[in-house]
């Protein structure tokens, strides 16, 4: 064993302490092939009825000094539970408690650290204090959700059923989703909330796609989200109008045109055609450069906030629709519309609504991303399409480029798996391996994937729920999101380096996704180097949309030797299936053994 110096080093943001040690020499390389079974060790106990289920917390995200309430369902009248807390690789200690009855509750007050993430392990013990079964859950502490935004969505508001609504929000909360986008909740983009003569919203209306909508359903969802500290974001276009006529406060100067227009010409207004009769109207493009038009748009959204306690506005755009003409003016080219138009629209919205409302903008296919990111938005958001980023590596590289623009807030990626799949004569189920892999690539890039609401997304029209999730996928997602939260610090570092290598030659790529090798995404800060290893070696395809819904993850490998070409006092390992951090012993040359590369293995070294 090595001698240990019990002094400590603090990292740049003061969030983490590292014991100063030397290397521990690895003399006998252990067989760690049972690592994959670590979460279900059964020592001197064959009674599987002692397992518990439904581990959850009372909120999706917490503020410093909050009390976290954990709940789980016991399958026995009396149980002894050991609770162990981790912060990154640090074991913060354990305690044993007794649980009685079917429902078990445990409370823990987090400390005052902000932007802190934890992994909490619950272990069921037998009469000899041996572990029968363990489960894990992450805890995200952040007073500013935009630093680490995880977004879900809602899209159906026709049925007032508080119990069903509660179950939906509970699942989203279990995924630590801290922003909820209320998609197509309104009737018209340009009049999102009609309040009538008495300045009161209607109780019922039909939405943009003629679907019945109830005010009380929206109100209930907002209430449920507030209980779990989730931000409710009202979706709406930056510049969409339901008409090309000079009505409802609009005039000739309110629109953009396809050609130069000097006299009243509704037919010349730029329009985004939509299928009818599904949608009530096409979308006519408002002149979001015009101060009067912006004021009209902002006033209409203030009506929304006066009537419904949304936390903010999620602003959608339609991407690059080319150069356009304001009324009685020369052409404005496409780049200027994004670089100046988007910039000053967002700036105007922030000035109008102040800091009390959250703002986010969809930079479709990264069009307008940089000017939007330069303004006072609360999170970054860019819908990805296969015409711009088709392969796993292309979407990873786009994420990396966007994260380089701004580092103080996080990035959300809507990306629709199976969008181009022809579902004719198939079972309409998501390919679980394809979903896992796309999420792995997005997580390794330091972003989060918008995919979950009342159902999982396969289309840009969020209410579309034709494709169902397998039970395996429903059960797996919380583990994947727990892993992403628990190791947010390691995964959010954005400084590519080249220290890590697998010892077999030409077996891994470095900072690009290669479906013929193991993919390693490596980043370093002053104290930590993290290496995300994604099992892509021999992958049957390279398109992230998994257009044939047949992506199959390669077989796992065990006991792979690796090293960092830099001195680290400690090296740790965690996987999605086994998120508990384990320390890997190093030999005198810094070699260590990775117990498992299954889907996603995280290795990190501490200097």
From TrEMBL:
Q: Which Pfam families does this one have?
A: Glyco_hydro_66
Q: Which residues form a coiled coil?
A: none
- The organism sits in which domain of life? Bacteria
Could you tell me which InterPro entries the record lists for this protein?
Answer: Glyco_hydro_66 (IPR025092), Ig-like_fold (IPR013783)
Question: Which keywords are on file for this protein?
Answer: Glycosidase, Hydrolase, Signal
List GO molecular-function terms, semicolon-separated.
dextranase activity
Q: Cite the EC number.
A: 3.2.1.11
Q: Does the keyword Lyase apply?
A: no
The protein depicted here goes by the name Cellulase/cellobiase CelA1 (CelA1)
